[in-house]
Sequence to fold (265 residues):
Amino acid sequence: MRETCRDLLDEYRALADLCATLGPEDWRRETTFYGWTPWDEVAHLCYFDQTALQSVNDPETFIADAKVLGRLMADGGQISAVARETFGGLDGPALLERWRGAFEPLVAALARQDPRARLNWYGPTMSARSFATARLMETWAHGQDIWDVMRRPRPGSARLKAIAHIGVSTFGWTFVNRQLPVPGVQPFVELTAPDGSVLTWGDPSATDFVRGNLQDFCLLVTQRRNRADTGLTWSGDAAEQWTRFAQCFAGPPVDGPAPGQRPAL
Fold:
């Protein structure tokens, strides 16, 4: 749990450091993620980091507030509008400071949890370790939108291994979420990490596989890149389908960017 939380805190701080370099106009740039700005991205993270801390420290209040948010979404509300309403009075630097004040205590609270403890979230409960890893994945994914809009190449990180693991683990769910039959064969996944080490999931196969760069795979499963804009290679019917609409995050099925919409920097 300590290692997971250390990675989470490092991810938070890396993104916060990037955001600290943004000027007033940068905070208002529109990303290719539904036109969200860096301000929207950080506001979204801040909102859910605050509710995540509430889940840890005050689960009963979290459950009540989650029901309210659920009804709002069911009535057609937009989650981006909720964050804008919550933090609308803050400019970029003030929002960044507010976010730091949310994620630092969240990581400290999670680090005190038994990794198997169950925590409430929007849907099924999650183990504390999975909860922390999910926050890592979301922070990295929304952070990518900011790296992209600022046209800055993002350095690789060993923290990506945890995100790739989520991507592999949600193979079956990706199909179930789209009401499609789950393929009988799950592709072998072989990825090269930034330090040159090779990470694998599943049984080696010469016919059913996804291979390539660890960062490219994470960009694919978080829907920050189309498969055509990565260096990934794949083989087999299951891999062909999966790489077309892989989705490692919760919620209804959505489609990632079209080819060329978010090319590699």
Remarks:
- The mean pLDDT is 95.
- The beta strands are 118-121, 123-127, 188-192, 198-201, 209-213, 233-235.
- The first helix runs from residue 2 to 19.
